[in-house]
Amino acid sequence: MAVYTDAMEQSCYDIYPEDEDYIEKLTDMVRRFRPFSEALDTFICEHGYRGDLSDGEEKTAFIRGKFKEAGVDVPRNLGKWYTMHKTIERKTAFQICFAFGLDGNETNDFFRRICLDRGVDYHDPQEAVYYFALRQRLPYVQAKGLIKQLPEMTQGKIPFEQELFYTSSIKEELDRICDEDTLLAFLKDHKAQFAYNHGTASVYIKELWQEIAGEDGLAQRERTQLYMESSDQKSSGSSQRTKASLWQVYLQILGLSKEETKKLQTDRSLKPALNHSPLIHPAAADAFPDRDGLQKILDGVHVSNERVRKLLILLVFYKYWAALALKKDSYHAQGNEGRSCTALLEKYLEDCCYPALYAGNPYDWLFLYACVNDYPLLTFRDLMGELLGEEVDHG
After folding, report:
1. What pLDDT, in 10s, does the model give residues 369-393?
2. CA 296 from centre of chain
3. I need a surface site. Which of 16, 109, 183, 199 has the fewest CB within 10 A?
4. How far is CA 202 from CA 136, 158, 172, 244, in A?
5. Which DSSP letter does residue 245 get?
6. pLDDT band with cut points at 50, 70 and 90 for residue 394
7. Cβ(146)–Cβ(98) under 8 Å?
8. CA–CA separation, 347 vs 353, rounded Å?
9. More confidently predicted of 388 and 354
């Protein structure tokens, strides 16, 4: 696993926007990200597999044996993980963790590196039970029994006006609980607080958006002082002073113009265009930050883990580099500023109990790559222009 991770981290330093074959290198980079089946190969080798990695049936038999030994239900589509390169659902990922005897920390690492997904969602009662059972080394069948005793809970909006039950606080409580009765009592007593997800991240996103898009916020000050649209035309003085809409600020963060996106025939999501770009991996295009997701998060509406995590990364990245650019009156990065940005991103992700940045994750790679360049924010914006370039040119 370390060999792959090291190679993906090194790739951030091997591609330069000035390279004549820049596009070819980006296209090649997309092909270098591992599918789930290859990541799973590394995982099973780390956990006892000594057979032929080219033999899908042998690998499937090994995994099936682990499931049966641990008394875990064998997934019906197990064989398709290799024959059809199928990805897996979160429930199946937890079953793998039980089958291979992982603990809580190892489970979070499995989700991060193998599934390219967030680890345990402690705000989800079922996943809280899984985490408790894995940490206590309880069998899967016992975890299923505990889940059957959970009260019914309806997913609702995040009550921003109330004191929120933050994800990190739930994890701390779960780490202290050592018996099943206490666990069930804790989950039942906090039933109302388990009716929403992403509380910490959503609060951060609301605060970040206010700093960025609020009156005299970072976006407005950048437009006045530094920002040039992709059309290379400065905004007019009147537009600089006018409060921009959510969509306009979103486009500014990405370095795109309204004219370009009009050609894409969208004012909510870039996903249709990203899905057709050979320069971005499907895992990065999936749940890519968009207007609809941002608005829902600001309103406290439930959205997927990926939409929240990816938007959080984008906003923290922009806030850091825009604030620094305004302070220096330059987009140029100096010294350890790139490392400071990644450290800040890690801090936000850790606070929200999200997986740390991982160079093997195609979305994370975009930001890790930008941060090691001389002009991180401009590099990211140029990259977005390249990702959408073919769609824009032929729109």
Report:
1. 999 999 999 999 999 988 887 443 3
2. 17
3. 16
4. 30, 8, 20, 22
5. P
6. very low
7. no
8. 10
9. 354
Which helix (H) or strand (E) segment holds residue 267: the answer is none
109 in Cβ contact with 122 (< 8 Å): no
Asked whether the beta carbons of 257 and 251 are under 8 A apart, the reply is: yes
Are 355 and 275 in contact by the 8 Å Cβ rule? The answer is: no
Report the amino acid identity of residue 235: S
Cβ atoms of 208 and 345 within 8 Å: the answer is: no
User: In whole numbers, what is the pLDDT of the chain averaged over residues?
Assistant: 89
**Percent of the chain scored above 90 by pLDDT?**
70
Cα gap 389→395, rounded to integer Å? 10
Rounded Cα distance, 307 and 314, in Å: 11
pLDDT digits (tens, 9 = 90+) for 177-217: 999 999 999 999 888 777 777 888 999 999 999 999 998 99
CA distance 343 to 151: 39
- Cα 164 to Cα 3, 202, 241, 303, 386, distances in angstroms: 41, 11, 36, 17, 40
Contact by Cβ (8 Å): 192, 233: no
DSSP letters spanning 339-356: HHHHHHHHHHHHHTTPPP
Continuous segment of H or E residues that includes residue 187? helix 180-189
Q: Are 337 and 309 in contact (CB under 8 A)?
A: no
Q: In which element (H, E) is residue 48 found?
A: none
Q: How many CB atoms lie within 10 A of CB 369?
A: 22
**What is the amino acid identity at position 286?**
D
The residue among 175, 191, 200, 48 whose CA lies nearest residue 118 is: 200
pTM of the full structure? 0.90
137: left (phi over 0), alpha (psi -120 to 50) or beta: left
- Give the whole-angstrom CA distance, residue 273 versus residue 389: 9
